[in-house]
Amino acid sequence: MAGGNAIRGTRVGAGPMGEAERGESAPRRRVAFWCSQGHETRVAFASEAEAPETWDCPRCGLPAGQDHAAPPPAPRSEPYKTHLAYVRERRSDADGDALLEEALSKLRARRGA
Ligand SMILES: [Zn+2]
């Protein structure tokens, strides 16, 4: 049966036990992230490492998520915001709390990365 060897050949390195990969580079998996502008970024992680929920898009800097259909929204706080605009926002307590929550969750996400 010549076909048997051909089929077996395609399975080298793809065995369920992963033993064939030993001695090569550490097993990696690629995780795709999409930003709200539709840029796709593929990042390789060690297979035992946990991929972060979001990844900064290297093209536009916006946060990118793993859900293509629902990328994370662009952050409302611009890095180049003027001081006056910043002060105006802080006058609204509700907005201030929301911004604080947003900033805190980003900090936590980055620390976890
Ligand atoms: Zn982008």
Protein model, in words:
This protein is of the alpha+beta class and 113 residues long. The chain has 3 helices and 4 strands; from the N terminus they run H-E-E-E-E-H-H. Strands 2-1-4-3 form a 4-stranded antiparallel beta sheet, with no helix packed on it. The site of zinc ion has 7 residues, from loops. Residues 35, 37, 39, 57, 59-60, 62 line the site of zinc ion (ZN).
Defining key terms:
binds zinc ion, alpha+beta, four-stranded antiparallel sheet, 113 residues
Summarize the SSE layout with pairings.
Elements: H1 2-9, E1 28-35, E2 40-46, E3 54-56, E4 63-65, H2 83-90, H3 93-112
Antiparallel strand pairs: 1-2, 1-4, 3-4
This protein binds zinc ion.
Structural class: alpha+beta
The distinct bound ligands, ions and cofactors come out as: zinc ion
Strand percentage lies at 15-25%
Largest sheet: 4 strands, antiparallel
Percent of residues in helices comes to: 25-40%
Radius of gyration: 22 Å
Distance from N terminus to C terminus (CA atoms, Å) equals: 51 Å
What strand order characterises the main sheet? 2-1-4-3
Pick out the low-confidence regions.
none
Give the H and E element order.
HEEEEHH
Average pLDDT, rounded to a whole number, is: 78
Number of strands: 4
Shape: elongated
| Secondary structure tally, helices | 3
